[in-house]
Amino acid sequence: MKPGLQYPIFGPEIKCPHCHQAIPALTLTDTYLCPRHGAFEANPETKELIHLQSGRHWRRWNSKWFRQHTHPDGIRFEIHEALDKLYTQGYRATKVIIATRYQELMSGYLERSSPWRSGQSEITSGRLYGLPVDFSPDPQEEPRWNVINFDLEKEPGVPVRYPYFKLFD
Predict the structure, then answer these.
(1) pLDDT value at position 121?
(2) Can you tell me the distance from the alpha carbon of 87 to that of 119, in angstroms, rounded to the nearest whole number?
(3) What percentage of the chain has pLDDT greater than the value 90?
(4) For the sheet containing 127-128, what is the strand order?
(5) What is the rounded distance in angstroms from the CA atom of residue 100 to the CA atom of residue 146?
(6) In this structure, are residues 8 and 46 in contact, taking their beta carbons and an 8 Å threshold?
(7) Would strands 48-51 and 57-61 be described as parallel, antiparallel, or unpaired?
(8) DSSP string spanning 3-59?
(9) How many whole angstroms separate alpha carbon 101 and alpha carbon 139?
């Protein structure tokens, strides 16, 4: 038997999506076991990692795990954390780009303004935490958008008004 066939699809060891510690694969299974967070099952068909206790799904891009959200609060919380991290690094976000697969899920949670109120000539996609929101290109054009959830455009400096304090407005 080939040694590679003894392990799940991601190999003999991965980093836990929660605590980022190296966790081993259980040989002859599709499971990884984290001492802190329990079992994760690798699905060879979908190439997803599933936390067995919570049912949360992750996909990997460039050796980093990205949670696949099923509720808007999950992605909003993740974006909020990323905005806080930017702020502590001395940057301000100028735009949020969300994966197109979340467009329907997020549409009801975006702040909208009418063109006649804001002085804009057309209706924009909306805003989140005071920032303009765009949706990603088609994942066929840019495959990373099949996995990653969002990206932040940023520039050096602190926000003019730090709008991210309102976590769930």
Answers:
(1) 45
(2) 29
(3) 76
(4) 127-128, 131-135, 91-98, 150-156
(5) 9
(6) no
(7) antiparallel
(8) GGGGS-TT-SEEE-TTT--EEEBPTTSSEEEETTTEEEEEETTTTEEEETTT--EEE
(9) 9
Q: Is the Cβ–Cβ distance between 115 and 121 less than 8 Å?
A: yes
Give the helix/strand (H/E) hosting 70.
none
8 Å CB contact between 100 and 135: yes
Percent with pLDDT over 70 in the chain: 83
In this structure, what token pair is assigned to residue 54?
């919570």
The pLDDT tens digits for 54-104 are 999 999 999 999 999 999 999 999 999 999 999 999 999 999 999 999 999
Distance between first and last Cα of the chain: 56
User: Please, how many CA atoms are within 13 Å of residue 91, restricted to the half-sphere of its CB?
Assistant: 13
Order of strands across the sheet with 48-51?
31-34, 38-43, 48-51, 57-61, 64-68
CA 22, CA 16: separation in Å to the nearest integer?
Answer: 6
Contact predicate 156/90, CB 8 Å? yes
Q: What is the pLDDT of residue 167?
A: 47
